[in-house]
Amino acid sequence: MELTKEQQAILDGTKGETMAKVMRTLVNYGEVFGAQKMVPVTARYGHLVLSFGLTFLGPVFDLFQKLIDEGCLSGQKFTCDPRPYDKNVPQSVLQKGVAKFVFGKQSRYEKQLEQLGILGEDSYTCTCYLDEIGNTPKQGDVLSWAESSAVVYANSVLGARCNRNSGIIELFGSVAGFVPYFGLLTDEGRKADWIVELKTTKMPDAQILGSAIGMKVMEDVPYVKGLDAYLGTELTDKAKTYLKDFGAATASNGAVGLYHIENLTPEAKQQGEDLIKPGAKVYVIDDAELERVKNGYPCIWKNKDAAPKLCFLGCPHMTLEQIKDWTEKLEAGLKAAGNEKVLVPTVFTTSTGVLKKLNETPYAARLKKIGVIVSYICPLMFMDNPLWQSQPVITSSNKLRTYTTARFYSNDEILSILTKEGK
Amino acid sequence: MTKTFKGRVIAPGEVTAEAVVTKQGFNTLASMQMMFIQPKTKCVDQSNPDIYKKVLQGKVLCLPQTIGSTTGGMFLYSAVKSGKAPACLLFSKEIDSLAAAGAVLADVWSENDKMPTIDRLGDEFLEYVRDGDKISVKSDGTVLVER
What we know:
The structure holds 2 protein chains of 2 kinds. Chain A is an alpha/beta fold.
């Protein structure tokens, strides 16, 4: 890799040994992918994936402390994934006790984040790109972010440029101010390896469509044809919400960092089929294929017929419109079934920014009335508690299904379970 | 019988251990999130029947690539520093960005604990290698599979 004089000097230790190791890591990492140079991070803010003070991640916190002690702080403010714990989420006394132990380093870590450069108290969310939070990069901005759902959204819906960085690497990019130039940062790396032809008879569930595409294309870039028939050709709030959940499923069920939606996402609108590589493979998705994918999800509850004890919706965090939409659907479903409250304890998760806005609307009280709790946590990390592993939790998030024992149901099925069936 | 493969060195080192093989993408977070409460790290990824419930710690993990959460590299780094990681990672394909981060972080920031990592061993490698094969990894990227 060819470095500038400034970068070479850092690598040679002019800013200390720790900073030299930060640069060494970025250089070695970039060279694995054939990067010839480092490019400046141009976005205003970074985003970190690690938001949880897991007792067992001691080596990471030790490394971060080293950065702080040596003055290797982030050159840009950053947002961060959601906090892992909220005492208001229904749980047993024992589960509370274990959570205290599992997340025993939370306050130490949050102090570290303040020292390293977190933007503010409302910065803990995986949906940092929403207006309520304000970490919304522009098309062409170079980012040093991690969090797979945020990276795929920034690349695909906003047209920013970011690789699927790992935790720690993304902070190193913000500390150095440079990232190695390869993959999704390059024009060539943003071209599509796959054409996905959508031939369903109705709008597919975002979570299942994303899962199917993720499992098929893995880390490749798909160019999706036919989805604009359902989402339209403008990035409305409804379309962006759909793509948020769709993208998270592609990134967690596979390793997608960028997708293009024909006639909708910015690069697909600007470049059309020029974005498709010659010889791209084709994946046709119809109703039967989505059914096949959904039926392939295993259920690893000890008792597969158990009544669900908890339902999580909001991984990634819900938007304000999504919460309002769910509120109305739940109210209508409960009324039709003659019930007053949801039949399974239910938690919506969202950012504190959205939560504040929600509390200014009547929807907060309406949700409370039907028994839904709204929390700021990361449900995925909340369930990273051994005592939750054997509990029957349900969700319509394919990301949560992938990383926990939560059982997946489509949004329509969840609605029916919560309002009519109870299981 | 011994068969030899050659790949590219991502993190150097020499190791001899038993193989554990996944033909599908290895989801690091989903597989290893319970490692710190397990006596020995076992895969807990319900979506990966190849290695679900199998021991990973101290084994040569043979895989096409890693997938899933961007905490992946960080989890690998912590696993190496805590002695809970596979002994070595052998990729049939080009390594992905998350696993590369874990391998490079462990290589640059860890004095004693290492996780040799080799990629580009080819599809034939992953088709051939089986659970329990004795694997010897050399620092030049040579991999000997003994059965």
